[in-house]
Every structure is written in structure tokens, then in C-alpha cells.
Amino acid sequence: MQIQFLGAADTVTGSRHLVTVGDQRILLDCGLFQGYKVLRERNWAPLAVPPHEIDAVVLSHAHLDHSGWLPGLVKAGFRGPIHASPATCDLAQVLLLDSAHLQEEDARRANRYGFSRHEKALPLYNRADAKKAIAKLVPMAPGRARMVGHASVTLTPVGHLLGACSVSLTHGGQTLAFSGDVGRSADWLMPPPQPLPAADVLLVESTYGNRRHPDARETPAELARIIRNTVARGGKVLMPSFAVGRAQALLLVLQRLKRAGEIPAQLPIYLDSPMAIEATALYTHHRRLLRVPQREIAQLCDGVRMVTTAALSMRLAASRAPAVIISASGMATGGRVLHHLKLMAPDERHHIVFAGFQVGGSRGAHLVAGAREVKIHGEYVPVRAPVSALEGFSGHADGDELLDWLRRMPGAPSQTFVVHGEPDAADTLRLRIKDGLGWKVRVPQHGEVVRL
């Protein structure tokens, strides 16, 4: 068995791990690089291995940093199947089509207004490429082993996101386990992560490996305070949100705050993201996978105003009436949220609330760090509105939760690799695993090949 770390080895994005078993190559995840430009440029670079030589892909979950390069892989010549849990297959269809649409829109806007340094800006991939990738998705039931070529593959639910699973791959008596993204023990929507089966080699994520989340029970009260204060001064609350998972958790908490009288019952809540609207319908469809009572999930959108068209979104952005607006993308890297941000950031009456992890180099990370201006659509916009980050909405396990989850494995792997984290987070988790569990562990380098 051999592993080549083609992404998420020196950063938190671009999850791509190529496993060679015998004469077969299986790619675990196929994500987009996000954040700093030097990382985003990797999306345009040829894969280290010709895509037509990869036999299959297995997805841990549907977030774009794990699935978003699938259309690029297919465009470059990949011809095999893409295995994932049924819910991941459903969400990936929504995410990939939306990502392709944004790629096309960004290229058109760059050409129209001259943002691009190139003679003609081109999308990384288009909707036709996304549809070809979607056609290759093969649903795979969690907990049931399936032969992928000569390897036996099993998915194990890990919370975090609808359909998210760890991946165990066994060949020749040797098992490799890949954590994917691990959820929290007290997530708003998802059940706690199930423990991994025994493994000889482990790849574990480290997004929050150097942090401890605040008590999530305090987060609704903090959000309610922000909303009440903003409404009192005649402002709007803008919540840049990941359309899948985070938007639904925000709706759940906002509905509970209204029922409890913590925020005005008549305060308009807008969901301004076509993808979030579609994803919310999928969460309702797969509600048996959630920890929330099915009745409450069915009422998730009661009274919520769905913004279905770009024209309605622009009208909402121009409105001066107090409201809560949930809009994608979650790191303010693209999508409709930019139009709201462009108009709201200069006005101190409003409040911008981030409720998810902000990759270094992203617009969201700059805002959370206190930037006084941000570049949107080629021009710099002053930031006078207060900006808050609510880590209590995070869908990732923190350092303590990751250690507790690893302790539940039947035994110590012979080798553990820490992936999917910024350098400090990855190295902090490495030290905690080494000193706290006594396991052999290290952080691999981008492009590194390890023979087992």
C-alpha cells in the first residue's frame, strides 16, 4: 500500500489523498484549494498522477474542500466511479452545480469589468463538467463493506455534515482509515461521530487541532444579543454562511430564539442562497439522519423568506429595514453575500456575523481579523460595521474532542498522519497525539509519497 498526499497536507483545504493498492489507485476525496492565492493556484495545476490512471474516488463528504475538484478531475480525463454515502451524493449534486455556476459567473464578471490579469478569464470548470462528475456518483450505504476494485471499503458516520463519513480501506490484510471531517459530540444537527474500526494506518483531520470551542450553549444567547442590539439601532444582521450544514443550524437556532422570545417574533429572516434553499430541502428529506426531532426539522423554514432570484436579492440588499440575512458563501469568497457585504460593511448600524471556520487568506478571515477594508468586485470597500465570529456553530471537533474520538479506536495505529489543518493546528494535534496517546504520528508534506 502507498499513499501520496496531493492536498490538505500543509493546509486545511484541497483534501486529496491517493492510495495505491496493488495495481489500483483510489483517490480519497477530491477537494478544492481555498484561501491564499498560492493555494488556489493549485486548482489549476495538473494532478501529480494522470487522472485517467485513477480507478475510483471515495468521498468522505460533500463540502467543496473535499469534493469541489471532481468536475476538474473528470474534465482532465478521470473515467471511474465516485463512491459516497447516499446523502453525500445528494448534497454533492447541489454543491458541484452551484460551484460551477459561480466559476462561470466569476469569469464573466472578470471579463466584463477587467478584473482578470489574463487576456480572457476562464472558469476552472463549467456546469457541463459538473454534470459529468455527478453522473459518476455511486451511493454506498454506511456500515456495509463494498469492494472497490480489489480493496474493501467501509464508510462510518462521523457527524459534521449530512452524510459525512470516515473511510476505511482494507487490502492485503492492511487497513487504512481516513477520518474525513469529524463532527462534534454536541452538534446542533448531527449525531456524535461513531468510532473508527481498527486500522493500521490513520489519516486524521486537524482543522481545530489547536483550539477549544466555547460552550455551544452560550452561543444562542450571544447571537440573540447581537440581533437585539442591531435591530435597536435600525440595522441588519448579515450572516455569511456555508449553504450546507451551517445555514440549517442557523435556521434551527433562530427559530428557537423566536419561540423563546429572545429576538422579535416578527423580525424577518431571509435565506438568500439558492443552494442553501435546496440543501435545506435535502436536510428535511434525510431528517432521520439528524439528532433533531423530525417535527422541528419540518418547521425549520416556517416564516423564513426564501430569496430565489438575483433580482430579489438585489432588492433585499437595497432595503433599509431591520432583518437577519443568511447568505452564501460562508467565507465571503463569492456568491450573493458579496452584494450584501458591499452595501452593509461601510455602515456601522449593521452587524456582520461569521459562524464557521475562516480559511487563512479568505475575505472572511480578513474581516474576522479586523480588516478595515476588503476588496470586493475589484474595488476596496471600507468596513465600519462590527464583525463577530461565533465559534459555537462550528461543525468540526476541537482538539479535545478529536483526542476523545481517537481514544475510542480499538487499538493504536502503527502510523498516524495529521492532515487537513493549518500548520499550527496540525502540529499542535500531532504533539497531543504523541504525548497524550503515545502513538507514532507526523504531519506529511504536500506531494509526499509514503510506502507502507
Describe the structure.
By secondary structure, the protein is an alpha/beta fold. It has two domains: 2-211 and 395-451, Metallo-beta-lactamase, Chain A (4-Layer Sandwich); 216-393, 3-Layer(aba) Sandwich (Rossmann fold). It has 14 helices and 22 strands. The strands form four sheets. A seven-stranded mixed β-sheet has the order 6-5-4-3-2-1-22. The chain has a seven-stranded mixed β-sheet with strand order 7-8-9-10-11-20-21, covered by helices on one side. Strands 14-13-15-12-16-19 form a six-stranded parallel β-sheet, with helices on both faces. The longest helix is centred in the N-terminal third of the chain and has 28 residues, at 86-113.
Explain the layout of strands and helices.
Elements: E1 2-7, E2 16-21, E3 24-28, H1 37-40, E4 56-58, H2 64-67, H3 70-75, E5 82-84, H4 86-113, H5 127-134, E6 137-139, E7 146-148, E8 151-157, E9 165-171, E10 174-178, E11 201-205, H6 219-232, E12 237-240, H7 246-259, E13 269-272, H8 274-285, H9 294-298, E14 305-306, H10 310-318, E15 324-327, H11 337-344, E16 351-354, H12 363-368, E17 373-376, E18 379-382, E19 387-389, H13 399-407, E20 415-419, H14 423-437, E21 441-442, E22 449-451
Parallel strand pairs: 3-4, 4-5, 5-6, 10-11, 11-20, 12-15, 12-16, 13-14, 13-15, 16-19, 20-21
Antiparallel strand pairs: 1-2, 1-22, 2-3, 7-8, 8-9, 9-10, 17-18
Helix pairs in contact: 4-5, 4-8, 10-11
